[in-house]
Write a structure and sequence with these properties.
Chain A: It is a multi-pass membrane protein. The complex is a heterodimer. By secondary structure, chain A is mainly alpha-helical. Chain A has three helices and no strands. Chain B is globular, with a radius of gyration of 20 Å. The chains are: A mainly alpha, B mainly alpha.
């Protein structure tokens, strides 16, 4: 069955965009849990490590930006309403 | 008896906190090059240096009751017990279970100390000097034991526990058989608690402990083969459960030169190759080298398994060695031993 309805197509695009950001967020979270725990452990002994530790903790966060970029491209690259404008 | 049963999923993360913490704690240990400098200090200077390190609290607290070598001995043991208790307090589920399982060795140490103290008629305050309440048995319980009148009273206090059978080996004349039985009991209990499970962390603990048993047996072999003791008696003193158990037990009672030659090719040989010669007069130097090898082994294994029990074990062993080194220096100084002799006994990994 071919999807011809532009509205349905746009809806699917929105779902894809949501998944891209959402899954990237979950992945970053999984990556951060270990780093976060380890950083808290080190900072408990060595408070001066906090700055470096925070930086390391935020590294997986950068992955979300890729997800977000993909979402934005999906949402704005094509729109069924473009022809109406 | 608790047995480890935990799901396999999501385990390494449980270790992230404790391994991060012990790695930070490791940086606070006394660096190896300090030992050479401590050898050239006198005892009050060493105490002053220790005040600048993690021992500050204990030195300050105990300074009003003791001084000189006594102060350092008390402070180091107090700090050791405190550090180990802290490791137990800051860890959860599997890591905590495994750390406690490993620290039970201090229960054995304390029971042995009390038995020895009672055997030679030491007072309870004197016995308590050498107690390290880092295992399951706490200070109050051990103090109660130290206050008992005789060895048999101490043994009776363990009625109905795991220790009872090992302690029943006491024949009233020698402690050696009881001490051996206690050592074997420690490893047997660890195997029983951790061995039957599929847990990865438990497997790594056992892997390290098996190597530790080998090294202990090897030291026994060095001592007894050097003294030319009969094979059957040597074998009785070996701890079962090591990885090289059978090979080492075959070496029991061999002539010393053959025994040393037979060790070539084992992983620990490179650590002792330059000191293990046939005409060696004492084994203390080999003992120190083998212990240093064990510490390096724990840390190098923990590079392969960064989120596991191994960094914690590495820290526990390194800390114990540090305390032993400080005590060796202080006692050696007090007895007026030459620096070379003290240095020979020290374990520097």
């Amino acid at each position: 069955m071919a999807i011809t309805d532009a509205g349905v197509m746009y809806g699917l695009l929105a779902v894809g965009a949501g998944l891209a950001t959402g899954l990237a967020g979950i992945g970053a979270g999984v990556g951060e849990q270990g780093i976060g725990a380890a950083v808290v452990g080190v900072v408990a002994e060595e408070p001066g490590f906090l700055g470096k530790g925070l930086f390391l903790m935020l590294l997986p966060e950068t992955l979300i930006i890729f997800g977000l970029a993909v979402s934005l491209i999906l949402m704005f690259a094509w729109s069924p309403f473009a022809a109406l404008l | 008896m608790p047995v480890l049963r935990l799901p396999k999923f999501g385990k390494p993360v449980k270790y992230a906190y404790i391994t991060g913490r012990v790695r930070a704690m490791k940086t606070k240990l006394i660096p190896n090059e300090m030992y050479a400098r401590m050898l050239n200090m006198d005892i009050p200077e060493i105490a002053r240096y220790l005040e600048e390190t993690q021992y500050k609290e204990e030195i300050d607290a105990l300074a009003k009751d003791y001084s000189g070598a006594e102060l350092i001995e008390h402070a180091t043991f107090a700090n050791l017990a405190k550090t180990y208790r802290k490791l137990l307090e800051v860890s959860i589920d599997e890591p905590q279970f495994l750390i406690l399982e490993y620290l039970r060795r201090w229960d054995i140490w304390n029971i042995k100390t009390i038995l020895r103290g009672k055997f030679y008629g030491a007072s309870d305050s004197e016995i308590m000097k050498y107690i390290v309440p880092a295992g399951e048995l706490d200070r109050e319980f051990l103090e109660g034991l130290a206050k008992k009148d005789s060895i048999n009273d101490v043994i009776a206090a363990f009625e109905g526990t795991d220790f009872a059978e090992a302690l029943s080996k006491y024949d009233g004349k020698f402690l050696a058989s009881v001490e051996n039985a206690l050592d074997k009991l420690y490893y047997f209990r660890m195997e029983r608690a951790v061995g039957g499970t599929l847990s990865v962390g438990g497997g790594l603990l056992l892997k390290y402990v098996r190597r530790e048993i080998d090294i202990k047996n090897l030291i026994t072999l060095f001592r007894m083969n050097k003294a030319g003791i009969e094979a059957s008696i040597v074998q009785e003193n070996l701890i079962p459960g090591g990885k090289l158990g059978e090979e080492l037990s075959r070496m029991a009672g061999q002539p010393y030169a053959d025994f040393v030659r037979g060790l070539e090719g084992y992983p620990f040989w490179s650590a002792i190759s330059d000191v293990a010669t046939a005409d060696l007069d004492g084994v203390s130097r080999i003992e120190a080298r083998l212990k240093a090898y064990l510490i390096r082994y724990a840390w190098s294994l923990s590079n392969y398994h960064p989120l596991s029990i191994l960094p914690v074990l590495g820290y526990i062993v390194t800390k114990e060695t540090e305390v032993a080194n400080i005590r060796k220096i202080v006692r050696g100084k007090e007895a007026g031993l030459p620096n070379e002799l003290i240095e020979e006994q020290m374990v520097v990994a």
